[in-house]
Structure formats: C-alpha cells, structure tokens
Design brief:
The chain contains 15 helices and 14 strands. It is an alpha/beta fold. An eight-stranded mixed beta sheet has the order 5-4-3-2-1-6-8-7. The longest helix is centred in the last third of the chain and has 25 residues.
C-alpha cells in the first residue's frame, strides 16, 4: 500500500484533481479527472495515467457541492486504485498574501487568513479555500497544504512590485502580486536542465488566462498580471490592460455598477469581444478568417510582443524564450508569428520542430542552431509542482 497525494484545484462550478503515488521521494501520477457543472448539473470523469476513462457519471438529480464531491471522490479513487491510500492533499491557491512566500501546511488559522484575501482576489481565492475547508470537514485526517501563484513573484524588485501611490493605498494590500507562479516555478526547474547557461529568460504562459514572466537567473523580476487576474495581456475573456481613468469615467457616469464592469472586463472581453463573440478559444479563432477574428489574433500578438520588448529591455537582453500552457503549447501558428516578428532580436525558428511540438508531453527546442535566442516549448505541470511541494512539507515536518 502506497501513500498518495491528491492535488486539488477548486473552482466555482468545478473541481479538478490529480493523484500521485509516493515512493520514497518520488511521485508517480496514477490518475486525474474533474467534476464539472457543479452543483446542479454535475458530471465527474476519472482517468488513469494513460488517459483511459475509469469512471464517468452524471448527477442529474443531486446537488453536488464541494464537500459532497470530495466525500464521494476520495473513496472512489481508493477503490479504483486499490494499492494507494490518500494521505495528503495539495491545493492550488491564487494568493498567499504578504505572509506566505512558500507553500504551507494548512490549519484553521491559515485557512482563515487565506479566506480574507478573497477581498483582493474574488475570482478564484474563495473557491480554492472552500475546497480546503470542505476536505477538512469530510476527511480531517488528511494533511493539507497550499501552493500559491503569487509566491514565485516575491523576488520582484521593489520598483516592479509597488505602485506610485501613497502608502495608505499600499497598506490596503494593493501591490503588483503577479500570478501563474506555480507554472513559472515548474518551468524554472526545467530551464535548469535544458538551458543551464541561460540568465535572461521570458516565459509566455498562454492559456485562457495569459501572462508573461521575465526571469533573471530563474527568478521573477516582473510579470504582466498585476494586482488582479484581469490585467496584462489580452486573454480569452479578460480585457488585459485597461486604463484606470476609463474605469472612473464608466462608473462616475453611472453607465455600469462596479460589479457589472468587473463582469464585462473579466468575462465578456478579450478574444471573445475582439472576435465579435465568435469564440473565446484561440483554436477556433485561428481557423476563422473573418475581419474580427483576424483583429483578435493581431491584438493578442501585439500585446504579447509589446511585453516581450519591454521585458527584454529590463533584462538587458534575452537568452531564452519559452512558450507554455494551452495556447503556448499547442498553437504553432501563433508561435511562428511571434518568432518571425522577433527576428530583429536574432530569433530563428525551426519550422519542423515548431510543428512537431504541438500537443507534445516533452520539452521541444523550436529555434534553429543559428538563432541567437534559444526558443522552447515546455509543457507546464502545475499539479506535479504542487504535489512536490506537499511532499517536501510532509518530509520536513
């Protein structure tokens, strides 16, 4: 019987999970899956490590909240994988606030502090903490940890982390927090192996949520998401950078309430709005040649290039460019457009390698040997990073 770590990512209507068996200091993924459509139209799917579906079920007449979902899930996983016992749980949590620069073991006091941070990050934080509370209630003996998206960016210099505002604003928790840190932390572990000589790196985490991170010696010195998850690059349904004075105008004129404007900027903007509501999916937009779809691609590329240029300047040059996450890993056309427009930096793409990298599970170098900048596609693995952090906390406790 092997002990196991379950990695949990709780959302408002979903609960994603991955299961890792522990052998000494090694972790092996044995299964993963998700609940979707919670609470009224809940659907569960559980797969093994080779993506074979082991369990798939609808709950049409049941109200499945996070507590009930976890109460059903843990015994089911131990039934499907009879040689493991779930002893530990690692949660993805957006913000660790000012207190937590590293992953931490959860107790009631820590959970209460993390819940307070929902005021700063209302989109994800509350539901992620709710998942930890639910698990503690139904399985109190499972040791729980949290890994934070904000932690990786606490190495940013003061000029990048704080805004030009009075201390009274900063003291309310308003600072450049940065996100996608678990993904960037994983990529940094791969960079050490793949390009050990690289000092100046830009990582493009491009998915439904998208951001860039400028790394110096594998440490974050700037990132495009700022105080919250709306800012920075154009995203699937999020606007990206939007001027504060336009926000003031729209609110003061009574055109929108704060809640209405937040909903528009976070859920009705980005690629969805730019494409004329065609889709929030870059995969669909790439295949469409309407004027709106072309403009959506151009805007996404423009914001990406704008930030790459800025980060190259603050890094004092560029050694390595990394593409990761859903769009970054799977959109060869996007990568080619970006690399072609970075030819002035000395980027030269290997077209066959760029095509080969689509949908892969291993890192692929997509720049050719004459390129002054090394370009890679590296599949991210946030779940493994959380599981590793959980194991490290347990081993050191």
């Amino acid at each position: 019987m092997k002990n196991a770590v379950i990695v949990i990512n709780s959302g408002s209507t979903s609960l994603k999970f991955a299961l890792y068996a522990i052998t000494g200091n090694d972790l092996e993924v044995v299964g993963n899956g998700s609940y979707t459509g919670m609470p009224q139209n809940t659907h569960i799917k559980i797969k093994n490590a080779t993506a074979t579906i082991l369990e798939e079920k609808d709950f049409p007449d049941e109200n499945i909240n996070h507590e009930k979902a976890l109460a059903l899930l843990i015994p089911k996983l131990e039934e499907l994988f009879p040689d493991i016992q779930v002893k530990y749980a690692g949660h993805r949590v957006v913000s660790g606030g000012e207190r937590f620069m590293q992953p931490v073991q959860l107790d009631n006091e820590v959970i209460d502090y993390l819940e307070q941070l929902s005021k700063i990050e209302p989109t994800h934080q509350h539901f992620e903490v709710m998942g930890a509370k639910a698990l503690a209630k139904v399985f109190p003996d499972i040791i729980q940890t949290a890994s934070f998206d904000t932690s990786f960016h606490r190495t940013m210099p003061k000029v990048a982390e704080f805004y030009a505002v009075p201390d009274e604003i900063t003291n309310h928790g308003v600072r450049h927090w940065g996100f996608h840190g678990i993904s960037y932390a994983y990529i940094s572990t791969q960079l050490v192996k793949l390009v050990p000589e690289a000092k100046r790196t830009i990582v493009a985490h491009l998915g439904g949520g998208a951001s860039l991170c400028a790394m110096l010696d594998n440490k974050s010195i700037d990132t495009s998401m700022q105080f919250g998850a709306i800012t920075g690059l154009t995203m699937a349904t999020r606007s990206g950078d939007f001027p504060a004075d336009a926000v003031f105008y729209l609110l003061k004129q009574g055109i929108y309430t704060p809640v209405e404007l937040e909903t528009i900027l976070s859920k009705k903007s980005g690629l969805l709005a730019l494409s004329g509501n065609l889709s929030e999916s870059m995969q669909i937009i790439e295949k469409n040649n309407s004027e709106a779809a072309i403009y959506a691609r151009e805007k996404f590329d423009y914001m990406l290039l704008k930030h790459i240029g800025a980060y190259t300047a603050i890094l004092g040059g560029l050694d390595t460019l990394i593409f990761t996450a859903g769009i970054g890993e799977n959109d060869a056309r996007l990568r080619k457009r970006i690399c072609d427009q970075l030819a002035w930096l000395g980027v030269k793409l290997d077209d066959s390698a760029n095509t080969y990298a689509v949908g892969g599970t291993e890192a692929v170098k997509i720049s050719n040997n004459d390129s002054k900048i090394t370009v890679y596609v590296i599949p991210t693995n946030e779940e493994l990073m959380i599981a590793r952090s959980t194991l490290e906390i347990v081993n050191n406790s």
